[in-house]
Amino acid sequence: MKPFRLSDTLAAIERLAPPEGAAEWDNTGLLIEANTADVRRILLTLDLTAPVAREAIRTKADLIVAYHPPIFSGLRSLTRNDPVAAPLLDLVAHGISVYSPHTALDAAEDGLSDWLCDPFTNATREEVEGSGRLLHLRPAHTLVELSQILQKHLRLPYLRIASPPGRSRKIKTLALCPGAGASVLKELDADAVFTGEMKHHDILAFQKRGVHVLLSEHGHTERPYLRILKKRMLSLLPDGVRVEVSKRDREPLTLVRPHA
Description:
The chain is of the alpha/beta class and 260 residues long.
């Protein structure tokens, strides 16, 4: 089986997530160039944690595609005493490169943000600041119906919901953004907003405006898309390249319920 060079592999990824779509504040692209030789195995992950780095080394990956950039605000040193830098040093030592698409993948056609909208088949959608989407729902949905659609599509274990006081009405417009989307969604005229996480005072501000807020946890809006990204990457890469979704990538938060 013929492998693929790193430069050709990155060109294929950037067909799916054009770099010009990334937000100005983001740090996307090739973050670690540990080896420019052939790519035979790619590991996909949301977060590049130490367990994921060990998994990549154990499975002999040549490239990690980490949705969230593991290098974001400038690193002032690379030492093994730093829990962020230590896994990166291990990857360099083993010749494993790292690429992050992040908001470029959000903004792309058929990317993460579009995928969040997919279960609303009759809705019309507008792009908002790259990562955001505004849906005009046809027909309008109750809050319960909306919650069920999102939970099924993302396979969510739960949703956190904040509703405005007063009589409930059907939801005609829904604003969406993966991750932490309050800054993208706050100026939109929508009946409801859905994102992963939001600050307390942002929630109160939406409530005051009469807007429903649906939250799922940050990674819950993003991690399920990795299986879609795997299929899309495989369609562009030669048969000699394997793409796997990390088994060690985990949502850091869990919901603990009191005993009944």
